[in-house]
Specification:
The chain is mostly helical and 53 residues long. The chain has helices at 7-38, 47-50. It contains two helices and no strands.
Length: 53
Protein backbone atom coordinates (compact mmCIF):
# COMPACT_ATOMS: atom_id res chain seq x y z
CA UNK A 1 0.00 0.00 0.00
CA UNK A 2 1.29 3.47 -0.89
CA UNK A 3 2.01 6.13 1.69
CA UNK A 4 -0.49 8.85 2.39
CA UNK A 5 0.77 12.21 1.03
CA UNK A 6 2.17 14.57 3.63
CA UNK A 7 1.57 17.98 2.12
CA UNK A 8 2.96 19.93 5.08
CA UNK A 9 6.25 18.04 4.87
CA UNK A 10 6.44 18.56 1.11
CA UNK A 11 5.77 22.27 1.49
CA UNK A 12 8.42 22.53 4.22
CA UNK A 13 10.94 20.80 1.95
CA UNK A 14 10.15 23.18 -0.92
CA UNK A 15 10.50 26.18 1.40
CA UNK A 16 13.84 24.89 2.71
CA UNK A 17 15.12 24.40 -0.82
CA UNK A 18 13.93 27.88 -1.82
CA UNK A 19 15.61 29.46 1.22
CA UNK A 20 18.87 27.60 0.58
CA UNK A 21 18.87 28.71 -3.05
CA UNK A 22 18.21 32.33 -2.06
CA UNK A 23 20.98 32.20 0.55
CA UNK A 24 23.45 30.78 -1.98
CA UNK A 25 22.49 33.44 -4.53
CA UNK A 26 22.99 36.19 -1.95
CA UNK A 27 26.39 34.76 -0.98
CA UNK A 28 27.46 34.62 -4.64
CA UNK A 29 26.36 38.23 -5.21
CA UNK A 30 28.28 39.40 -2.12
CA UNK A 31 31.42 37.58 -3.26
CA UNK A 32 31.22 39.13 -6.73
CA UNK A 33 30.70 42.57 -5.20
CA UNK A 34 33.72 42.07 -2.96
CA UNK A 35 35.81 41.08 -5.99
CA UNK A 36 34.70 44.20 -7.89
CA UNK A 37 35.59 46.42 -4.95
CA UNK A 38 38.96 44.72 -4.42
CA UNK A 39 40.11 45.03 -8.04
CA UNK A 40 38.63 48.00 -9.94
CA UNK A 41 38.47 47.78 -13.73
CA UNK A 42 41.22 49.42 -15.77
CA UNK A 43 38.56 50.86 -18.09
CA UNK A 44 37.14 53.05 -15.33
CA UNK A 45 40.44 54.95 -14.99
CA UNK A 46 40.92 55.47 -18.74
CA UNK A 47 38.08 57.93 -19.59
CA UNK A 48 40.04 60.88 -18.16
CA UNK A 49 42.50 60.65 -21.05
CA UNK A 50 39.95 60.12 -23.82
CA UNK A 51 37.35 62.73 -22.83
CA UNK A 52 39.56 65.80 -23.47
CA UNK A 53 38.78 66.00 -27.21
Amino acid sequence: MAFKPNYNHERAERNRAKAAKAQQKLKDREEKAAQRKASPDDDSAAPDDTSEE
